């Protein structure tokens, strides 16, 4: 199958490309830089130069492919409006390009905001609609194309997709701890974060490409929820730092933009996804990765 992947050189995307190539697919990855293009080509995949603002290039990439996996995101926390607008425009462009083809379209999403007071499940519809909502309401926008002949499915990744080389949320928290000289957690530290190892997440994406029906919501979740206090304690052990509670009113000042996420309960289950895809995570847990030094590599 010819698969077009945005975010192909990214943390999750690079592992997905490896899985797709191993499964015998022909992969084309979107690359915005020479370094990204070289990394994609080194794996044995093809390259389409461009970025999320290159809608003509994205349209052509989708039209030429037999499936699209959209993992790219600007992640510009200083300008979320621009990030959301770019995400929505890219998803709309891909959906229109695939309309009426019955081709798979998988897009990255998350579990934030799906449930209150309990772990989120695949039955929880995203509450985010419209261009001004988080991610530009891209999950709901993509799933609307299921009614227009697109095998659209969402990939809801855990807030921690962990492993050696991760530069995501856990790496940011580790950097803040080193800078502050203390590994903090919000309040009493009982809020929980779902987690999954990067390679398990990549295997789920490939299984979803083959098996997910139109309209599916897939949860890339291994651990339902790791308490934020335990995350902070593991970071403290990794860097020899004291661990302390950060008062709720000081969370934003201490953690910056990531405080909003670290102070939220982002737990989720993946029971339905495991049953649908036959997916069984086998990688190390988040705390095992932290204790093994995965985030000590600078």
Automatic annotation (TrEMBL):
Spans annotated as Disordered: 116-140
Stated name of the protein: SDR family oxidoreductase
Domain called NAD-dependent epimerase/dehydratase: residue spans: 3-211
InterPro entries: Epimerase_deHydtase, NAD(P)-bd_dom_sf, NAD(P)-dependent_oxidoreduct
């Amino acid at each position: 199958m010819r698969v077009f992947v945005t975010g192909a050189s990214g943390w999750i995307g690079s592992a997905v490309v490896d899985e797709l190539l191993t499964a015998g697919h022909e992969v084309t990855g979107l690359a915005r830089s020479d370094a990204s293009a070289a990394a994609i080509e080194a794996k044995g995949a093809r390259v389409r130069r461009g970025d999320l603002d290159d809608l003509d290039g994205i349209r052509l990439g989708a039209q030429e492919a037999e499936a699209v996996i959209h993992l790219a995101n600007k992640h510009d926390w200083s300008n979320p409006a621009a990030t959301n607008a770019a995400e929505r425009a890219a998803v709309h462009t891909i959906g229109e390009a695939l309309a009426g083809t019955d081709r798979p379209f998988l897009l990255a999403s998350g579990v934030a905001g799906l449930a209150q007071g309990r772990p989120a499940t695949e039955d929880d519809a995203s509450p985010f609609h419209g261009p001004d909502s988080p991610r530009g309401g891209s999950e709901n926008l993509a799933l609307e194309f299921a009614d227009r002949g697109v095998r659209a499915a969402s990939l809801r990744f855990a807030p921690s997709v962990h492993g050696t080389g991760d530069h995501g949320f856990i790496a940011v928290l580790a950097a803040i701890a080193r800078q502050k000289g203390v590994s903090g957690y919000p309040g009493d530290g009982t809020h929980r974060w779902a987690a999954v190892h990067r390679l398990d997440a990549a295997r789920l994406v490939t299984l979803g490409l083959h098996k997910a029906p139109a309209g599916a919501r897939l949860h890339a979740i291994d651990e339902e929820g790791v308490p934020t206090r335990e995350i902070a304690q593991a970071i403290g052990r990794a860097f020899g730092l004291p661990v302390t509670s950060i008062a709720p009113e000081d969370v934003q000042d201490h953690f910056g933009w990531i405080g909003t996420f670290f102070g939220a309960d982002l737990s989720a289950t993946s029971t339905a996804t495991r049953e649908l895809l036959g997916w069984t995570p086998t990688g190390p847990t988040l705390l095992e990765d932290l204790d093994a030094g995965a985030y000590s590599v600078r």
